[in-house]
Structure formats: C-alpha cells, structure tokens
Amino acid sequence: AEFGFKRIALEEKQGLVDDVFHKVARRYDIMNDLMSGGLHRLWKDAMVSWLSPPRKGRPGSFQALDVAGGTGDIAFRIVERSDRVAQATVLDINGDMLAVGRERAVKRKLDDAVTFVEANAESLPLPDNHFDSYTIAFGLRNVPRREVAIAEAFRVLKPGGRYMCLEFSHVDMPVLDKVYDFYSFNVIPKLGQAVAGDGEPYRYLVESIRTFPNPERFAAMLGRAGFERVSYRLLSGGIAAIHSGYKL
Ligand code: SAM
C-alpha cells in the first residue's frame, strides 16, 4: 500500500511539471532570459564547451542525446560547436516544447542535424550503447525517479560515452544565498504569474530545486549508477552546477 501511495505521488509530480511546460512552451525562451537575466546562456555555453564535441570527422560521427531538451538550446550548441560533426537527438516528454524546438531548428538551418523525440527520460525508446554523449540541462530535477533516468542514461551511452548534467545547485555564499532565496520565492513566481498567467507551478519548480542533491551527493549518485571519473564545476557562485561522468 505504501508503495502504491508513493507511486501516485510521483505521477502527480510529473503532471505538475507537464502543466508548467505546456503553458509556457511558446514563451519558454523569453522566460528563461527574464528569469536568469540571460545567465542560462552562459551556463549552457559552459556545459557545451566542457563537453567539447569533436570538430573533425564525418557528419554524424558523434551522436549526442539531449534529454529534457525542450526547445533545443543544448542540442543546437553541440551541433554548431562541432561544425556539424555532431548530430543531436532532442528528447522531451512535452510535444509543445519540441514543436517550438523544431521551428527554431528550421530557422537556424539545423533541422537536418537534429532529431526530435517525444518520450520520458525514465524510459528512453533508444538502443543500448548508442550515444557518445548524454546531456540534460535543467531537466533532471523535474524527473520524478531520478535514479531511473540516470540508469537509462548509462544504458544508452557507448562505452567511453560521456554524461553531463547542468542543474540549479545550492548557493552557499553569504549574502548571495539570501538574494537567491528572495529571488526564487518572490520574483520567480511573480514573473511566472505575469508572463505565463500562473505563479503556482513556478513555486513548485522552485521547490524542486531545493530537493535536488548538493554537488557532492549528486556526484556520489552518478558513481553508484556506474559512472567513472565523475567531477563537477560550480557556476555563478553555485547557483548552477555541471556534473560530468564517463561510462567506461
Ligand atoms: N533543456 C532545456 C533548456 O535548458 O532550456 C529545457 C529545460 S526545461 C526547464 C525542462 C524540460 O524538461 C521541459 O521541456 C519538460 O517538458 C522536460 N521534462 C520534464 N519531465 C520530463 C521527463 N520525465 N522526461 C523528459 N523530459 C521531461
């Protein structure tokens, strides 16, 4: 009975997350710039430059999977940075976000290098040992069963493939932590209210940041899932963190 109860709770959690992104899909990119003051762009650049996909090779010789890829920001960066040696698959549970991504890919003339797949990070409809990289940016905290998503990442990566996660983290600098708390609990829901017409779901998203493990604990989780050479970098005083690990 206890297990049944927990399962319903987790499914509700996914429902809340889906509500947010169905509502904001069209305004998602503007919201991101507003809410992060443009910082999300620098953080995404930092992840893709740490990944440094190869620039030499035939097109498609590097296969990148971007999970919870939304409107394509990470996938586009990987393809562009690799001079199209990389091809990318954007996977997201939300068809509305993917539809925006597809339009953006066409506008940037990247649609031949990017494929869109609507699916859940917890059960990837993708083969074992296939991808050179797996990235997930601001997505894992929304996934109800994070361990399951990490195990799926491990499964679809080739031996030698790399896992990278960009996620909000825990600020532990005096003053900045207070500013950050105020911003998260007051400014973000109000912006959500103003732009998307509803602040409540944003309050939930801010909560999900609090429950995300700190960098050390998340690194340990990756180790337990089988990843090796796990390391991380903190961004902007710890507001965000990038974790990296290899399936060897
Ligand atoms: N990665 C993009 C970026 O950084 O701009 C989008 C991040 S957005 C904050 C979170 C995304 O996670 C949404 O597009 C949402 O639909 C997706 N998502 C939530 N739960 C998911 C799940 N279980 N499986 C796959 N995607 C999921």
Automatic annotation (TrEMBL):
Pathway the protein takes part in: Cofactor biosynthesis; ubiquinone biosynthesis; Quinol/quinone metabolism; menaquinone biosynthesis; menaquinol from 1,4-dihydroxy-2-naphthoate: step 2/2
UniProt xrefs under PROSITE patterns: SAM_MT_UBIE, UBIE_1
Top-level enzyme category: transferase
One Pfam family this sequence matches: Ubie_methyltran
Protein task: Methyltransferase required for the conversion of demethylmenaquinol (DMKH2) to menaquinol (MKH2) and the conversion of 2-polyprenyl-6-methoxy-1,4-benzoquinol (DDMQH2) to 2-polyprenyl-3-methyl-6-methoxy-1,4-benzoquinol (DMQH2).
Family named by the database record: Belongs to the class I-like SAM-binding methyltransferase superfamily. MenG/UbiE family.
Record-given protein name: Ubiquinone/menaquinone biosynthesis C-methyltransferase UbiE
